[in-house]
Amino acid sequence: xxxxxxxxxxxxxxxxxxxxxxxxxxxxxxxxxxxxxxxxxxxxxxxxxxxxxxxxxxxxxxxxxxxxxxxxxxxxxxxxxxxxxxxxxxxxxxxxxxxxxxxxxxxxxxxxxxxxxxxxxxxxxxxxxxxxxxxxxxxxxxxxxxxxxxxxxxxxxxxxxxxxxxxxxxxxxxxxxxxxxxxxxxxxxxxxxxxxxxxxxxxxxxxxxxxxxxxxxxxxxxxxxxxxxxxxxxxxxxxxxxxxxxxxxxxxxxxxxxxxxxxxxxxxxxxxxxxxxxxxxxxxxxxxxxxxx
Length: 293
Description:
The protein has 293 residues and is an alpha+beta fold. Among the domains are: 59 residues; 121 residues, L,D-transpeptidase catalytic domain-like (Beta Barrel), CATH 2.40.440.10. The radius of gyration is 38 Å and the shape is globular. The N terminus is likely disordered.
C-alpha cells in the first residue's frame, strides 16, 4: 500500500512539471504587443533557430565531437573587362546614358550656347553627357520640372525667351532699375546702365488681368504681404502700381494656362535677389505685352 502511494505521488509530480512547462512559455521581451497572451511552445526556436531550455536529461549526455572543416580553395576570380564609354559616330563625345533626347535638342543647344554659364554644349542636335548635364543645370536654375536633361517644349521656350531678351531696350535710370519684358515674360535689373541681374523668367497678368506697360516706382515693400482678395501670402512683395508688384510665385511658374492678377511672379531665388537689390524708390520699367492679354 505504501509502495502504491509513493508511485502515485511521483506520477502526479511529473504531470505538474510537464503541464507547467507547456503553459508558461511566454517571452517577457516581447512586451505583450504581439498577441496579448502566452507565446506557443517552441516559438523561440522557430523564430531564431536556437534550441529552447534544455531538458534535465540533456546535461548528462556527452558533447558530440564537431569535425573541423577543411579549408576550401576558392577559385581566383578572373579580371573583368570594363567596356569603353560609348561615343557618338560624328563627334566622339560620350553619349548620355539614361538621359533622354528631346524634340528640341538642337534649338536648346543653340540657346544654351548663346547664354553661356551652363557648361559645354555641342550644337549638333545629338544628346551627349555634356549636353545632358548642361540642360539639367539650366532646368534646375529656372524651375523647370522634371530635371531630366530632356530638351522638351518648356525647356526650349524658356531658353529662347532668355536668349532673345534685349536688355538694352529698357530705359534705365541712374540708380537701380527693374526691367520687365512682358512679351518674352522675362525680368532683369540694371544699375547705371549695366546689368546687375541677368534676365530670368517671370509670369505676369493673365487674360482679364493684364499687367500694363509703363514706367513706375516701387512705393511699398514687405518681406511677406497678405493678399486680402485672394487670401494668399506674397513673399518678398515690392508694389509698384494698382495693387501690382513683384513677389515669389505660389504656383508652378511655367504653367501658361494660368497667370497672375497683374503681379510679376518670380522664382524664389529671383524674388530674394530682387528684394536685395530693390528699395522704395527703385525705378520699374515694363515694355511690350504678354501674348493673349
